[in-house]
Amino acid sequence: MPLHRTGHSRSTQAMNELILETRGLSKNFKGFTAVDNVDLQVQRGHIHALIGPNGAGKTTCFNLLTKFLEPTHGSIVFNGVDITAEKSAEIARRGVIRSFQISAVFPHLTVLENVRIGLQRFTGTSFHFWKGLTALKQLDARVLALLDLVDLRAMAALKAGDLPYGRKRALEIATTMAMEPVLMLLDEPTQGMGHEDVDRVTDLIKRVAEGRTVLMVEHNMKVVSRIADRITVLARGAVLAEGDYATVSSHPAVLEAYMGSEATELQGAH
Prior knowledge:
By secondary structure, this protein is α/β, with parallel strands linked by helices. It is built from 12 helices and 10 strands.
């Protein structure tokens, strides 16, 4: 049964479980509707996947949630607070962290130094680079613990730019984790990866999601079928279907939206 409810039928218990909710979220670009009246509900502690064909509005939705774009209308509620009018930095301070916001890897710094920068938020030295790194050495134990989590501890001294692509994505997730996210937004975390890296990063997402909430845009249906607790399908900017993987992968309208080889992949990802 879909989680989405409307009006007064929404129970107090369900409201307490929701960490993120959008109501009628829409974005128009000069007459083109990219996101169309989207009601999205993300439960605390879930891995929630946002999927759909190319051009469905998934990334635009992410841009609205993090206020890289302003909604044309609709509202965004996070932890029971309406954040629709807040700026991107204010939303990030609430703990809504999108991976690329703080994880654009610094290629000439080491793996350890990249994650340490993410931790500076908690030291009061975020903008005091001229003071040098001596005061930040105390953070290294926490950095190494995060690198352990993403299987990068052995690579701590390597330059980030020298990492293989899949390991760079793992470093991005570690840097995101350094910001202590309440809600992690991951945009295509396995894009462009070979099978081995996809499996490694899928396992990593499942591991770091323990005790946290993840909202992810992902094209790889095998990844979605393995780790998503709930899935929202977008098509032409609107919600087409919602539910667990078995529900959405057999939904006639979803199969029609994907069509062809993509529909076959959707059904065959179990």
